[in-house]
């Protein structure tokens, strides 16, 4: 197994650690940042999520630069991203930090694209790699999640609810990229309806 694939597997293994840190009834205290109170468990969860998200960028960079792109990586990398992001979003709903309807749309899109990927593999044996709209969707989802977990602490002069703004930006790219994938791969369904 090459380094990018190992990073993908590590990202998958970080998901249960992230869940335990965010959901376990641990009281690690509260940090005061300006007028905002931040539970240390939320900060720890955001850091774990950020590190796991960074491995997504890192494994892709290494794979492309060193010519280590594999079918396992094309399959497992987006799967690891989906598992990480869906876990984080479901936990945000449970914590009351994200509206359920937004998360339902995101989860349904992820499941639909996973099904599309499986159909493409079945029909022609190739794995559908992520396109730019999907990469933008993933990046905006990851930033939205981080800012939602840290309670929209204003950084520098930004006093906007950045987490919520990014959540709706990622919702747009979630829908846009989903439509884009299905339009570009509509041939998969020819003769099957």
Question: Which short descriptors sum up this protein?
Answer:
single chain, 193 residues, mainly alpha, 6 helices, 2 strands, 4% strand
Task: Summarize the structure in short.
With 193 residues, this protein is mainly alpha-helical. Helix content is 71%, strand content 4%.
Overview of the molecule:
This protein is mostly helical. 71% of the residues lie in helices and 4% in strands. The protein is built from six helices and two strands; from the N terminus they run αββααααα. β1 and β2 form a beta hairpin. The model has no long low-confidence stretch (mean pLDDT 85).
Helix proportion range: over 70%
The neighbouring-strand order within the major sheet is: 1-2
Derived structural class: mainly alpha
Low-pLDDT sequence parts:
none
Draw up the topology in text.
Elements: H1 3-23, E1 30-33, E2 36-39, H2 40-65, H3 71-94, H4 100-124, H5 132-149, H6 162-184
Antiparallel strand pairs: 1-2
Helix pairs in contact: 1-2, 1-3, 2-3, 2-5, 3-4, 3-5, 4-6, 5-6
């Amino acid at each position: 197994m090459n380094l990018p694939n190992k990073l993908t597997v590590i990202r998958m293994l970080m998901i249960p650690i992230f869940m335990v840190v965010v959901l376990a009834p641990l009281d690690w205290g509260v940090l005061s940042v300006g007028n905002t109170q931040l539970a240390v468990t939320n900060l720890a969860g955001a850091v774990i999520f950020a590190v796991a998200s960074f491995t997504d960028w890192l494994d892709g960079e290494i794979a492309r630069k060193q010519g280590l792109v594999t079918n396992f990586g094309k399959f497992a990398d987006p799967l690891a991203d989906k598992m990480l992001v869906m876990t984080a979003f479901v936990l945000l709903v449970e914590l009351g930090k994200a509206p359920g309807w937004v998360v339902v749309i995101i989860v349904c899109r992820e499941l639909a694209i996973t099904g599309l990927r499986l159909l493409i593999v079945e029909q022609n044996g190739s794995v559908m790699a992520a396109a730019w709209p999907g990469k933008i969707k993933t990046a905006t989802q990851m930033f939205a999640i981080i800012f939602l977990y840290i309670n929209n602490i204003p950084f520098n002069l930004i006093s906007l609810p950045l987490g919520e703004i990014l959540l709706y930006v990622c919702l747009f790219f979630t829908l846009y990229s989903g439509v884009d994938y299905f339009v570009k791969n509509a041939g998969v369904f020819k003769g099957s309806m």
